Amino acid sequence: MLAQATVNGILLGGLYGLATVGFSMVWGVMGVINLAHTAFITLGAYVTYVLFERYGIDPLLSMPLAMATMFVLGYGIQRLILNHVIRTSLLLSLVVTFGIELILTDATVLIFTSDVRSVNASYASTSVAVFGTLVPLVRLLAAGLSLALGIGFFVFLRRASLGQAILATALDREMSNLMGINPQKVFALTAGAGAALAGAAGSLSSMLFPVSPTMGVSFLAAVFVITVLGGIGSVEGCIVAGFLYGLVQAWAAYWLGTSLQEIVAFAMFLGVLVVRPQGLFGRAFFGEHA
Amino acid sequence: MSEAAVLEQGAKAATVRPLVWAAVAIGLLVLCAAPLGISSYWLRVLTTVLMYVIVTQGLNVIVGITGYHAFGNGVFFGIGAYACGTAMVAGLPFVVGIALAIVVSAVCAFILGWPILRLKGHYFAIATVALNLAAVQIIIQIGGITGGAQGLALPLSDWDPKPLYIALYYLMLGGAVASTAIVAILLKRPLGFALRAIRDSERAAAVMGINTTKAKVCAWAISAGLTGFAGGVWAYWITFIEPSSAFDPAVGVKAYIMLIIGGMGSILGPVIGAFVLEIVSTLVWSGFLKAHQLILGLLIVVVCIVAPNGIINAFARLVRSVRSNDGAA
Lengths: 290, 329
Description:
The complex is a heterodimer.
Chain A: H1 2-30, H2 37-55, H3 59-85, H4 92-112, E1 127-130, E2 133-136, H5 137-159, H6 161-171, H7 173-178, H8 183-208, H9 220-230, H10 235-256, H11 261-275, H12 286-289
Antiparallel strand pairs in A: 1-2
Helix pairs in contact in A: 1-5, 1-8, 1-9, 1-10, 2-3, 2-4, 2-8, 3-8, 5-6, 5-8, 6-8, 9-10, 9-11, 10-11
Chain B: H1 3-37, H2 40-65, H3 74-89, H4 94-116, H5 121-142, E1 152-153, H6 161-188, H7 190-200, H8 202-207, H9 212-238, E2 240-241, H10 243-246, H11 249-262, H12 269-287, H13 292-306, H14 311-328
Antiparallel strand pairs in B: 1-2
Helix pairs in contact in B: 2-6, 2-9, 2-11, 2-12, 3-4, 3-5, 3-9, 4-9, 6-7, 6-9, 7-9, 11-12, 12-13
């Protein structure tokens, strides 16, 4: 049983990590705590649900579409709303994104109602053996793809010139501006990429969890804990902290019971904040100083 | 606030002050007389507005004056509600319940403040959000006298509903006046100066000999006490509380938005912010039952883009720009 819980925890942790990468990046690069991030996860899941239900498109195939949709949404919101707000006060972004979250969630309820839906791919009930435990195939796929996307984003930041522009802006906004990088565009790009990754996480979790307008909010605690644990703005930190978080949650559920899971999460969060606020891999990103 | 703005404000204050006092006096008179002439629906709306005045003034102490953005300050609203609720279920009178609501909230802020107020900027803001979310789970876990996830029904008053609601209205009004007075007095006391020094530069304040940790913790305790009072009265008014309603993060967030609308760190700003947002959102609520969250969200976004420094400042800026345009023409 413990082995089963451990494997499940680690696999879920991969998905949690992916759900967090975008949030952490946006916080690290521009100091915006995006409370609407969970709504992007929900919307990503609904894109997959609609494509699956209407057109019978496999969730794994619709994931890029969900990512593209969320990229456009994240990019647009940053350009039209957030770029104006962060010029005045960074903490105002908390309020604005709370408002955006209300809008997106209420719009989801109005369009799709609050009914709980599900995405059942043909391979949903298949299981595979991992280290002597039986694991649902979809969980393994979700964890594997999450890890691949996380690593892909990490490489994008280091290798692609657009990625390097993001990192440069995160490290020193004024200097990167002098090098000819337009921060407004970099912010929008970062927000778009963050939303796209959240959309991917939502798309993957639609295979694992029931799809409802509040499904994204259930990621909120995980997203906060993993961001802080991994170090704000650190992709590799997010991935490692995601697995760690999944493991701790699984063990907490195993030994203490599921009702104490969330308290363990918040205790972890406050503990990390007080003891090591820069997290495991934290660096002097912009969000650190804000 | 820049030096020029402070000087300009000082010069203006001399001419504006009598007008403000007159407005405050008229406003208070209207509010005192209001229960005689309004329906029970609007009595409820006004009681909610006054409750938010108290919560926003509480937030003003820690956010507006001290510069620590306690985004999850609603946690003390819930603590106050539960302190009052459990005390009354245990058979204690309402007055004791309210006293406990204030004391327990302030003590919680005092204890939590030592580790958490060391955090800066975003980290502090997020830590308070985590406290708010964790409190829901903690109440559910404690169970027993708090009622856990099932919620807690407070003993009913033996008063008739109408006079009871009017009495609670006056209690909220008294709380709103008292909390505004506390903010006004605090700004004139050494502690108020210390807190504003911390807001502008914590390191400089420490160098000048201010015990910053003590000042910050005191500020948060005052803030929590005010918020806890509002929560306690709310619990008795609503008579049934549950973790998700008492610790609703929207309480703290709404107060934060009211503070933005009114202008941070001012004395009357929170009052104006509470009236504007609550009455507008009540009207919106009754107009768009299905999409009220959506409209509230839109309202928040518009306020933040158009008037990030408060509507009074935005209005003043508008007037100035209109005037300078006239001069140019």
